[in-house]
Each structure stands twice: as structure tokens, then as C-alpha cells.
Amino acid sequence: MNPRFFVPPEGVERHHGPEWLHLLFALLIVAVLVAGTVIIVRMVLHHWTPTAWPRRHPAVDELDLRYARGEIDRAEYLQRRADLIDRTARLPGSPPRPPGAPPGPPPPA
Fold first, then answer.
1. How many CB atoms lie within 10 A of CB 97?
2. What is the pLDDT of residue 23?
């Protein structure tokens, strides 16, 4: 390369401050760009992974643990699990569903 390329014209100073400050500022810009890219990629991947899907109710998890430890029998486990999963069973004052009825809202009274 031409050495005159690096020589500033007469009357113009070559540096406007300490060189390390320019290097630090350049590194800061690169770090911000990298951090921003990482944050955006993690946000996008987090929303598209199965772990971001709605989790089960903690009561169902606790019920699974109690059944696994042998604290409740199968019939009680299945009944309580059905009660927890069936949203209409948690409504106060809703009539019990007849056996074999499809899941859904209770019939109007």
C-alpha cells in the first residue's frame, strides 16, 4: 500500500483522543451487536420450542407424584385427575356429569 495513504494532510491531526479509547468504543459496539443478536435468537427459539408451550397445572403434577409414591390408588388417581383436567367440574354449583357423557360444558339447567 501507499504509505502516503496513512499520512493525514497538513493541518489535520491524525488522532482525536487516545487510541485505546477508539478501540474500546469499537469493541463496545461489537459486543452490543453480538448480545442483541443472541437475545433475539434466544427469544425466537424459545417461542418455537415445545418447552414454551403451556405447562400442566401444578396440581396435576402433584397428583402424579402422589400416585407414583403409592399414596393413592388408581381409582382415586383417575377420579381426581379427571376432576382437575375437566374445567367444568371446577365450576361451583355445576351438576355432576352422567357416566359416559362427552366432555364439555354441562347441560343448561
1. 16
2. 87
